[in-house]
Amino acid sequence: MNLKQLAAEKAVEYVKDGMSIGLGTGSTAYWAIRKIGERVREGLTIQAVATSKASEKLAQEQGIPLIPFDRLEGLDLTIDGADELDRELHLIKGGGGALLREKIVAFHSKELIIIADESKFVDKLGTFPLPVEIVPFAKEWTMASLEEMGARPMLRTEDEHIFVTDNGNYIADCRFGVIENPKELHRALLALPGVVDNGLFIGLATRAVIGRSDGTVTVV
Ligand code: 5RP
């Protein structure tokens, strides 16, 4: 079994009957959605929201009941991946471009379980370029502001075109070097006009399930 699948399937054990669930995005969340689908087909009764069009499609294929965001007061549990996580469970997310919906869903969840293989667990965040979602019409100004903040921003592309998020925005992948103070950087980025949100998730994750190369799983 691969490590992402190992972590994902362990985390799905926390899903119980009657819960409202947030479905994450990415190649690790894929395994969680598959496993939740399997349990739904065996009789588990849940309702779910998806953090991306890709996860929505997968959930539909799996037979997971999806409901619109505005029909829910909140979520019991969200299971999602991360690009990096540290000991305090600060995260970098957005490698798959879904950070805005992922953050909104995480914020409205009582619990956020992060699933990852052990390569994602780091001492300090910052090796993975921080995804920053920006509005398209002012992209040059916003990229320049990010550069003034000390980043080396690169506009994300896909198949030689600018990558567009599910919300119609662009992503600037920003190399800040080692992020010594994630909280401060998060605040500073949110204060920048043109920035919609950024991939730093501070104080949102409540638990992490890490798949180890020796075949074990650690729950942090
Ligand atoms: C998508 C995300 C993903 O959770 C993150 O990129 C990890 O992806 P993967 O599980 O494929 O490594 O934040 O926006």
From TrEMBL:
InterPro entries: NagB/RpiA_transferase-like, Ribose5P_isomerase_typA_subgr, Ribose5P_isomerase_type_A. Keywords: Isomerase. Substrate binds at residues 25-28, 80-83, 93-96, 120. It is an enzyme of class 5 (isomerase). The keyword Lipid biosynthesis does not apply. The active site is at residue 102. Pathway: Carbohydrate degradation; pentose phosphate pathway; D-ribose 5-phosphate from D-ribulose 5-phosphate (non-oxidative stage): step 1/1. The keyword Isomerase applies. Pfam families: Rib_5-P_isom_A (PF06026). Its EC number is 5.3.1.6. Belongs to the ribose 5-phosphate isomerase family. Homodimer. HAMAP family: Rib_5P_isom_A. Catalyzes the reversible conversion of ribose-5-phosphate to ribulose 5-phosphate. This is Ribose-5-phosphate isomerase A. The gene is rpiA.
